[in-house]
């Protein structure tokens, strides 16, 4: 299952995943492991490759003719793709999609090989040994699309409200694969209603853009967490003779996010965030969660009273975002970078890999109404001048790609951060009564007052983007010592009460929803080689903290 709906009716598509592929490891020494393995999936799910880190090859055959487009929703973490022995694509980063167009395939059977590498090293600035696991494999779906001479490569729609009525701005791109110019038109539709017909001219082998600035949608209903009304929006590409040549279908919701002083406004109403940070991680599936597991996670978060999820610390599977759109779960989505020092950020590949991730994230996920904010560079070097330059460039890139949403970053630099003039929302990760014993209310007030009095973040919305404590499932003790379920529940109660009592605080993300596997090098600070701060364990069994957070979240109104 690739998306929660069909993205084409005219273009012929088929999923190449959802089946077994030929797989073999390519170790630097020792014997290779050969087996049949499911795609999508992580090779850590196979007993023979449970701890393998390195290079491997996936292979399968397919039948096609003419022009095709292959899309990978996620490969962890570096991919090299070959069709019939010829290279067609390379990509770095496990968490963003990429594609390749192959022209003029002869009719018949063809071989597809994907070389995958999940090893750590100087070429990888973002995938490093970290407080979560870097799995290996083709971890998200693979799609084959049959193309004609031209195809629609992008459709972005931005809703906005003017004098009580909804409008959309639409823009997109047409790719001309032929060696002659193309003249045609693009029809834009909301559900079955045609909004506009735009002329398109593309030179031979070139890309043509189209745009409509203000398309009225007078019957549109607003999308919001309590009523997540979705609409299909589509573009149909036609030749000069009126014959439909291609289409592209997506979903959208009508909503606006604005910043008004210290408040985040959702459709004009001040909203309070009650969220969870969530890793894509499961003991059976690694980072390659099936649809039912995603649904289960969202069901539990809704039961907990949450209205938002943070995709810590990378862009998520688009199927999960589809579910957030459908269920009204607001999303903080961020690019892939966590806990990198200035030295790490000086890796020659760092800026390019971060910028590629931002572009791919926003271009792929722009139309999701559930995404209300973009984030970058979690807990990186925002306290240094070099780090500030990186933050400034990446936030500027986000704004150049999408000025309809605010942006932020989650800092852990206590009273040393020098970047709070850059984002729209000031965000802090804090762990009072876990990494230190300062009472939560005193710690938060001290931090908030410093932001208002001594930084460029004064007068902006303020979010607590991480807070929590570790608790090992089943470890119960009347002394309520750290790592016990009792201590975790007690700490979260004090933390959340302090946050919701703090004037000027727009909300919180509990760290975290579920326990997750970490890299082995973190063993000395992570019992079980797991990050144990989930309110449910890795199997989604609730800890004592579950009911504590549920009681508090359900007592707090979404709109203030």
From TrEMBL:
A Pfam family: Glyco_hydro_2_C
GO BP annotations, alphabetical order: carbohydrate metabolic process
A GO molecular-function annotation: hydrolase activity, hydrolyzing O-glycosyl compounds
Glycoside hydrolase family 2 catalytic domain span: 257-556
Protein name in the entry: Glycoside hydrolase family 2 catalytic domain-containing protein
